[in-house]
Amino acid sequence: MKSFHSDTMKPTLKTLKLIPENKETPIHFLRNWITPSEYFYRRNHFKYPEITPQSFLLPIYGHVEAPLVFHHSYLKSMPSKKITMVLECSGNKRTYFEPKAYGEQWEDGAISHGIWKGVTLKSLLDMVVVKHGAKEIVFIGHDKGTRTDMEGIFHYARSLPIDVALQPDVLIAYELNGSTIPYEHGYPLRLIVPQWYGMASVKWLKEIQIIDHPFKGPFQTVDYVYYPHKANDLDARPVTNIKINSIIQQPLDYSILDTGTHEICGIAWSGHGSITTVELSFDNGSTWIKAKLSVDPKQKYSWTFWRYLWNVQKKGEYTILCRAEDSSGNVQPFEAEWNKKGYGFNAVYKVHIKIE
């Protein structure tokens, strides 16, 4: 059996942009259950913020009975929780949309898998006592800058519906993979929202505001919205949970291999449940063969590794298709739902192989 992984070479992050810094995880060359922190993808809208003493204070105010300011050290003294989860940019795989969508042309690496530790957001909201009639929780980051489509200085800010914010696994995190959150990933405090695309997990958390009306910030109502029509904004809806998805890590697209047995391996994930099936097709989808899954049933927000041993004796060109299904019955479609901003690409994955 041929192996596609080397123990002597080390991959690197792939740079899409330096300012603001946007870099992909070398996802095709990692078989780590937990993505090492140095290989976590980086998605920024602005330059990195300056860390000051104010950065260690977290005010929670607004539609509450008892507004409070929490210090970083106090949060670390509270009962903690760990969550192992997929973190994926909603623009992951944007480059595959046809017609093309404007934005960072992510390929497969705007995704990582880590262990986050912090306090539950619910425990903090219980302390400030959210008033009746609260509708959304707004999370404002320290990172700020200008936009090309409107005037002014904007902080990165997003909101969650109150029912989502109160879910027991939403965290105010201060650790990643057993160490302090790296500066590049939101130090000292970051919101962590399992099963939602990464735009919800606000970095460098500055303040939390409870409101009794819909939040209208540009990263809520302009960006991170599915616009299914090119000519207008009809049928727009917000980007929320991660769609069912998968990739073939190895072999790489347009690889040249010899005859024999090869391991085809990859990852599958979903924000709507656990992965139940991964299938491969070698005849353009006429028939499908199940791959072997590697699942941790205790980690409900984790990705799933899969593998299949492919014995090929006939020379020629092949297209290998891959699709996943989750516990909610979602199956990867043959075509992703096109949208103007290029979010949520999750079409059946394919690689082209030549056997010589």
UniProtKB/TrEMBL annotation:
Q: Which CDD domains match?
A: SO_family_Moco_dimer (cd02110)
Q: Output the SUPFAM superfamilies linked to this UniProt entry.
A: E set domains (SSF81296), Oxidoreductase molybdopterin-binding domain (SSF56524)
Q: Where is the Moybdenum cofactor oxidoreductase dimerisation domain?
A: 239-355
Molecular function GO labels: heme binding; molybdenum ion binding; molybdopterin cofactor binding; sulfite oxidase activity
Q: Name one GO biological process term.
A: sulfur compound metabolic process
All residue ranges annotated as the Oxidoreductase molybdopterin-binding domain in the record:
45-218
User: Which organism does this sequence originate in?
Assistant: Clostridium polyendosporum
Question: Which metal ions or organic cofactors does this protein require, according to UniProt?
Answer: Mo-molybdopterin
Entry-linked PANTHER family: SULFITE OXIDASE, MITOCHONDRIAL, SULFITE REDUCTASE
The name this protein carries in UniProt is Sulfite oxidase
State the source organism's domain of life.
Answer: Bacteria
